[in-house]
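User: Modeling request: complex.
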Amino acid sequence: MKPTLPQGTRDFSAQVIRKRGYIFDTIRTVFELYGFEPLETPALENLDTLTGKYGDEGDKLIFKILNNGLDNSQKHEQAKEDFKKILRGKSVKTLTEKALRYDLTIPFARYVAMNYGQLTMPYKRYQMQAVWRADRPQKGRYREFYQCDADVVGSYSFMYDAEFAFIYWEVFKRLGIDIELNLNNRKILTSLAALCNATDKMMSITVAIDKLDKIGIEKVKQELEKNGLGPRQIKIIEDYLNIKGTNQQKLDSLKTLFLNIEEGKKGIEELEFILSLLHDAPEGAFGKPKVNIHLTLARGLNYYTGVIYEVKAKNIEIGSIGGGGRYNDLTGLFGVPDMPGVGISFGVDRIYDVMDELNLFPEKMQKGATALFFNMGTEESKFAFFQMQQLRAKGISCELFPEPAKMDKQFKYASKKNINYAVIIGSEEIKTQSCVVKDLVKNEQVTIGLNEIKDYFTK
Amino acid sequence: MKPTLPQGTRDFSAQVIRKRGYIFDTIRTVFELYGFEPLETPALENLDTLTGKYGDEGDKLIFKILNNGLDNSQKHEQAKEDFKKILRGKSVKTLTEKALRYDLTIPFARYVAMNYGQLTMPYKRYQMQAVWRADRPQKGRYREFYQCDADVVGSYSFMYDAEFAFIYWEVFKRLGIDIELNLNNRKILTSLAALCNATDKMMSITVAIDKLDKIGIEKVKQELEKNGLGPRQIKIIEDYLNIKGTNQQKLDSLKTLFLNIEEGKKGIEELEFILSLLHDAPEGAFGKPKVNIHLTLARGLNYYTGVIYEVKAKNIEIGSIGGGGRYNDLTGLFGVPDMPGVGISFGVDRIYDVMDELNLFPEKMQKGATALFFNMGTEESKFAFFQMQQLRAKGISCELFPEPAKMDKQFKYASKKNINYAVIIGSEEIKTQSCVVKDLVKNEQVTIGLNEIKDYFTK
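Assistant: Request completed. Predicted assembly structure:
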């Protein structure tokens, strides 16, 4: 039997793990610097916790766990009864009660609701874990992939909204990725619909204008018309889409547009607060975050109530590599009302692809152990083993070739494993308490005393 | 709806994650020092890959994933057909084809078999990931828990067998746990059965003598008798169990016992090789590993063919916190024969319990951000925000209280989150470019210049 992996899943080898770890560590470092705490939730959640949260399409993509024993043919009497129920469209609780985590937001909400009262508010958490979706696998889309979120809940303070702009900026500066950081506000989108007297059509308006960059203004107008909007309404939307200029100019135009719409004015104020904080900030170690007010940006609209973020990588054609926003009600569905918050997410798989393609991973990432000690015979290898123990105690990673073998074979092993140095200790070297160290990258070799190896590698 | 977690699963809060991270990082550091590379496999495996590998009892504990769409009542026509098959005891492929990782060994074997030819042999990998078992949850036993394994495959070299004794020793020294490191060899157990002329009863002999410490010699003898062993055979086993003394004395007694049994002599030699390497090793940074030859040790016997390891914590009543051994055939079931190897495993959950109970976690682990900047008003908080940006750039984690609030409330927040310092910048301080820093642990405060904060925290 030739084994395979399930569709849409991946093994991660050492090199990929190190590169992914570099991304995770960078994001984690920044989250911690900003006072966020880690949280981990289990892969398994009660099916009840997940269903109904992601829409009908989402529900179909949740991986469900078969109740234990059901696939055991000896136990099929119970299963038979259960299945009859299913065929009558009844609850399938008897078949499955548990499911795999589908995102990090709902488990976070479940955690906050379960531990409400114990948590110190505002609660700033970050979470980096795998999620599973029974999506059709395709290039760059997996059934098991990682999400990486940070949220603050329990506060309406816009300081946090601004802080996330700094966090995005700093993370991507550290990774070396040039980004475009787009901001919008749900209140502005709602106000546009109100301005058109089409509050009920807010959803379809947003979906249509969100496509502007892809399909152009004419096709957007056609779609709006198809959705039942009249010429005067479409004219208002077209004027909105024509708002151009600097961020402040855009907001000024909106102020005129939303002169009598309170919600719109609030949305503008929220964005202005962020812009003013960015404007007044000193040039820090990573420069000031540059943002664009992007009036067609929507992203998972239904959930957000305030600011909306989106990050795109420059110099490469790829979808967004981050997004998020402010919401009013994280935990209402779990019985805890009035839990506002704001959060962002990093698209780790895409960030990996960007970095790989633009060659942004530091070179040292590709390295194996520092040194391979050659195996020159039974006694020699024991001797080498003890030398290695002393280096390891000093933090130098090394390994021994497992059995006496031709030099060629041992060199090949070192090169395949990206090991930088070969250390050769034969019987002569034991007598003189020395060793031959060969730099496999520079292709140079030196003979040094055994007591000098440590310094040689750490210099 | 009050949400809950599935039985046997856990949320990990910040403090627990930091403590667990300390254990994982320590183990990872040592693995890397010894030249092991990380591997990660997906949580989802094909059901075929897992079934039949863990025995009948194990198979029942595998969590199976319901095929997508099956629990969707509109699609029940197909499901109906499928279910009829199940009721006739036919394959359940149509119901479930995927399952959750049950351990790290089989996915490792699957990976090696799939990538055989690409991998540089010997292949030294470590893996630290969650596994899932539909076991009855009880104190200290979870349905989602972590395993932490290292293996070398593709070599018969006993240098690796010895190396794992060093690795166990070093990891637990670094963690501060005193251990008993027990060794045995499967060949010795096999030879005992051969000596009794009961090779077919090797399994039940081993199971019985493995209980010696728990139930005493009389009950072991009763169990042997119940399993069909005669008085002369039981006498041989009793003599074996009476072997006492130093490691060398035990091996010497075995030599007499197995005078004519080649396999037994080989098992003794293998252990002697490890003992001699340990004996000759210099006192390193972590001292020489101390091991006990433990002649009743078996552990997952069927799989192992050579050395067997077991680690127990001293000064605390808890099961083993590590185990492993040498095997001849990792990948035969996946079509790649003759893949010998040796590996060990760390019981992370139990190690956590030991460290928690013996108070071995470093104190700094319990800390939140370094400083909380108080919110003294809109302008003051903006000013504080910019000060924080400069500290963060220097690697000092800090956060701002989100809105102006009573001092009391802000102090309480800092204390609940284990934050060490409060930094207060009011309008007066802005004028004088100074701030009040309060050490919340020592309950002392100083007024310093803004340009001194950085040094104050890093001194």
